[in-house]
Amino acid sequence: MSRTVKSASHTDHVVQFYEDDGFLCQEVGRFLGAGLGRNEATLVIATDKHLRGIATAMETAGFDLDGARASGQLVELDAEEFLHRFTEGSLRHGMPDPDQFDRVVGGVVRPACADGRFSGVRAYGEMVDLFAERGNVAAAAKLEGLWNQLGREHRFQLLCGYSMGNFRRSEDFEAFQHICSVHEHVRPAETYDERSSHADQRRRIAELQQRAYALEAEVAERRKLERTIVEEQERLLEANRRKDEFIALLSHELRNPLAPILTSLDIMDVRGDSSSRREREIIRRQARHLATLVEDLLDLSRVASGKVSLQKQLVEFASIADTAIEMTSPLFQERHHTLELSIPTEGLLLEADPVRLPQVVGNLLTNAAKYTPVRGRVAVRAERRGSEIVVTVEDNGIGIPRDAIADIFAPFVQGRQSIDRAGGGLGLGLTLVRSITQLHGGTVTAESDGPGKGSRFVLRLPAARAAAPVTRRIVRARDGNGTRAHANGKGALPDRRRHASSGRRVLVVDDNRDAALALTHLIGQLGFDVRTAHDGAEAMAVSATFGPEVALVDIGLPSMDGYALATRLRGMRDGAPLRLIAITGYGQATDRAKSMLAGFDAHAVKPVDLEVLRGLLANLPKPALG
Ligand code: ADP
197-206, 217-226, 587-596: which range is least confident on average? Predict the structure, then answer.
């Protein structure tokens, strides 16, 4: 950059860089003191701190400042206060006003230059530094220009101070160069002593050059490292994304065989074969356990990909708790725990997803039951505290070591294993608890006094503000133990006679042959006339001759998907009633909406529960006559 100082200037315009305030005050004190010694008028515009430091430096050197102030030889102005007055806009973005500058600074310099009592004028200013400190280098440069302008009209010596700290980034080099270019003389900061011998100065320059070189090399090395870190981060993110995709795929694939296994068990139940009853129960229990694990995995990948959207409604917390307790009561019974509840039936209204929030409370209850030795005690308390609903699930179980508490909400983290490993999970329960709680705008924390001292999980959820109509509490009847048999659990054998020879025609379309076969058998056992197809073309061919009244269609079919097939099947029925039921592995609200849009009448998630299937096949419209 070229030097832009005008040669026409009468002023000696010098810039002093500094690192330490003490050094600056000494240098400025020396500069102004020399002026006082030569009977020159002196003007100092500095921050309050520097004004005091400079005065001390001059007083220490033996100058009578009070006398100089009284005679007008020394004028001191507060730079900060002064700058605020004559900057238009903020110091960070504004510009100095030339008229104000001329009025105030010119108003001191001009008369001093004309005052016959003084042999000359010298000034020190650091308003420029205050602009530079705020990154407003343009304003600093403009101010320097105003000083130079004044210097062309009047002869005086001018010293400006700039802190090195205002140019600490390598990108500041250009601004630094510019500041140097608008001054005639540049005085380096204290690391370079101008008063030392020429030989010492050269040595010092060499040292500083080495330091600059080493720092630049280090910066380059760091930049390289930063790039490597960024690349590594991207690689890890990519690996994590692939892992999430794999988990999503894996859980879908694992879910598919579970559907026919559970349906086949239902078929066996319908047949009423009592010799294998015990084994069937074992298979069913284990398959359900597997299904729960797979559901957790699926949920994790949904949460990870942001696919969980809540269907919130206004509910009483008591109904959420009811559902959660109902879900987990078999485990409590099995482990002979006492469950103490302190949950008001009213007054704890919140906006919540009536499916997802019970999952949160259910997971906390399941853990409390799992991680508490048999015949333990689990207490659930819910209360309103200010704008929050605070739910505490407390047990007297194995507790959590202090150093483990921070991690237990992370995916796949498992602490000491449950007493009965068969009930163990994948370390995802609490991850889902936290994610779903956060989606509800709440928080969850864990507390424990240590191993063997029990655990306490505290859920904080925002209470609903509106006193709008409440969704009916979903209270279900319980037996004496506060539990209820699951809909498709033990003792839920269907009454075959009720459906016998109904003769209604059902078409099952699924490319998974086992799933199709199991479902076909089950529907057959329920007394329906049922046919099977494994792809769209076959389904249409069967439909043409069979004329189904109900079609259960898998969505993920090869070549023609379930949505397209639904439209074709409906078209083929020529106005005759056809109930279309989508049977898929996907049960999110968006999946259901898609099915409805495609013309399906119902949407069932695999594995289809026997009771759900009965419901779907019940109350078919009357068959068309002729
Ligand atoms: P999982 O139960 O499948 O291991 P979670 O995410 O539900 O996974 O829990 C993570 C870990 O936190 C558990 O392995 C267990 O060590 C600890 N933990 C959770 N709840 C409790 C509890 N109520 N008491 C003691 N430890 C618990």
Answer: 587-596
Query: What single string gives the DSSP state of each residue in 201-247?
Result: HHHHHHHHHHHHHHHHHHHHHHHHHHHHHHHHHHHHHHHHHHHHHHH
Q: What is the 427 CA–ligand 1 centroid distance (Å)? A: 7
Q: Which atom of ligand 1 is nearest to the CA of 414?
A: 14
Q: Which residue has the tokens 């987990």?
A: 328
Distance 319 CA to ligand 1 centre (A): 25
* Cβ atoms within 10 Å of 373's Cβ, excluding its own: 14
What's the gap in Å between 456 CA and the centre of ligand 1?
12
Region of poorest pLDDT, from 159-173, 290-304, 378-392, 405-419: 405-419
CA distance linking residue 576 with residue 601, whole number of Å: 15
Nearest CA to ligand 1 atom 19: 367
**Nearest-angstrom CA–CA distance, 394 and 295:** 25
pLDDT digits (tens, 9 = 90+) for 515-539: 888 888 888 888 888 999 999 999 9
Ligand 1 centroid–CA 399 distance in Å is: 9
> Ligand 1 pocket test: which of 297, 335, 367 has the largest number of ligand atoms within 8 Å of its C-beta?
367
Cis peptide before 607 (omega within 30 of 0): yes
**Beta carbons within 8 Å of 155's beta carbon, 6+ residues apart:** 10, 11, 113, 120, 121
Single pTM value for the model: 0.53
Half-sphere exposure of 549 (CA within 13 A, CB side): 15
Which protein residue's CA is at the shortest distance from atom 23 of ligand 1? 368
Q: Is the CB–ligand 1 distance for residue 325 below 6 Å?
A: no
* Ligand 1 close to Cβ of residue 398 (< 6 A): yes
Tell me if 416 CB under 6 Å of ligand 1: yes
Closest C-alpha among 599, 535, 603 to residue 573: 599
Structure tokens given for 402: 């202090």
Span from the CA of 326 to the centroid of ligand 1 (angstroms): 20
Is residue 330 scored above 80 in pLDDT?
Answer: yes
CA of 588 to the centre of ligand 1 (A): 27
Whether 582 contacts 553, CB under 8 Å = yes
Of 372 and 558, more confident: 372
pLDDT in tens, 137-147: 889 989 999 99
Q: Decide if pLDDT at 484 tops 80.
A: no
CA atoms of 389 and 406, how far apart (whole Å): 23
pLDDT of residue 390: 97
Does the beta carbon of 425 sit less than 6 angstroms from any atom of ligand 1? yes
